[in-house]
Amino acid sequence: EIVLTQSPGTLSLSPGERATLSCRASQSVSSRFLAWYQQKPGQAPRLLIYETSTRATGIPDRFSGSGSGTDFTLTISRLEPEDFAVYYCQQYGSSPPAWTFGQGAKVEIK
Amino acid sequence: QLQLQESGPGLVRPSETLSLTCTVSGGSVSSSSYYWGWIRQPPGKGLEWIGTIYYSGSTYYNSSLKSRVAISIDTSKNQFSLKLSSVTAADTGVYYCARLAWGVGFDPWGQGTLVTVSS
Lengths: 110, 119
Hints:
heterodimer, A: mainly beta, seven-stranded mixed β-sheet, four-stranded antiparallel β-sheet, B: mainly beta
């Protein structure tokens, strides 16, 4: 079973700053099957990025994803007030079919 | 616009079975393009995938829950359901249903429903 470890656990930044979140897999993950979600308090998660770097419908271009193998990154180029939230990476593994989430990373206002 | 809505008891006794239903509107659970999934979130913690079902009835379960989980689909009602047996306090949390596009991810999600396991 693939384990996803996100870092840092909490990122304290100011609006306008750049946020870089890491997701490391315990073994190689297909870049086709790596996604990122955003969750705000009291809300369901929202899909941000899929296939490592493709933005979901309606997601602003300040969100970008990159990576391959075991190391993946979500970057928010300039933080807007609505971007302060918890972010999860998620992967799909095929043997057996299973979907795994990272433990989450919080971006908080400094 | 596709919408999903979870429903079911908010309180379940320990050792009993948790049963939830997800009703889909604005789309069909019979679509061959999508799968349907359940994900849960204990209070203050992260997301845990529970299981996934296809319209044909094929299912995939989290290995840590497999012995207690059953997911089914009712295409006539445009619903899919979750049963989790022998629950304990560790099963308390918000349960979400979501549509899964293979190779894309879970999108959209239902609003979630809080299930508390307590006597």
